[in-house]
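Quick note —
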Amino acid sequence: MPTILEIEAAIKQLPESDIRQLAAWLEQYLNDLWDRQIEADLASGKLDNLIAKAEADIADFQVRDLNEFLDNT
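Predicted structure written out below.
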């Protein structure tokens, strides 16, 4: 398997259009990894405390509407 340095050197030799295509692929790949990690964390219960806290905050009206928050930036 090539090393990171070898991969970096190979990328530097690619035309810009290929580098941009690779970057788009890598971004999608990382997004898919993130999605799988979130799904695994959810299934394992790792997010249960965060979900419970969010639900409690909503029930106690301790949250702001997202549009209200975005309008104040």
